[in-house]
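Re: that chain you flagged

S.,

Sorry for the slow reply, it's been a week of failed gels. I finally had a moment to sit down with the sequence you sent. For the record, here it is as I used it:
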Amino acid sequence: MIKVSLFAASAAFVLLGACGGPGNVQDACKQAGSDICAKLFKCVDPGVIKSSLGYADQTDCEVKFEATANCANLACPGGTSFDSSAANQCLDDINNAACVTGQPSLPASCNDWCK
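Prediction finished late last night. Pasting the structure tokens below so you have them in one place:
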């Protein structure tokens, strides 16, 4: 079973500088939240998620993720712009990741959305 901490790590990833993706930075953030929540609910028992994180369901997870990550106001740092190819690779890697036991980490492709 994937640890619940995947969500926390993923939220931190978005908060600390995820830029880029499908269309614009804000859409990429929303898509990352959707993909992360889908993976979380696929890999972890919903009862564990509810008791550990308080998310009633996947939609609740996505809404809270977007609010916590402040998707509506994300932007790449000055002097950089989003790289949609890099963002799409990251999203693909999140979606294709297997459910694992132990402390998961984000794909390396998620480290460089702004260039």
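What I noticed first: The chain has one domain: 5-101.

Talk soon,
D.
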